[in-house]
Amino acid sequence: GNILGQYCIxxxxxxxxxxxxxxxxxxxxxxxxHKHPGHTGVLLTKEGCHPTIEGYKLIADTFMKAWNLED
Length: 71
Prior knowledge:
It contains 3 helices and no strands. It has helices at residues 3-17, 25-34, 53-66.
């Protein structure tokens, strides 16, 4: 099954219950994936889970944008 999808749903629900801000990193990864049509391998992760340097940059950029700390 899609355990990552289940995790993302649970994280969103937990953020809602705890009345805290949720930064949708999963959506950022999907959006970036769609910018590279035809890509068949891992794009921002080493094996589908752990980020590459580019993946970590996307995570940092996504948080900076969510917190209005962009350059």
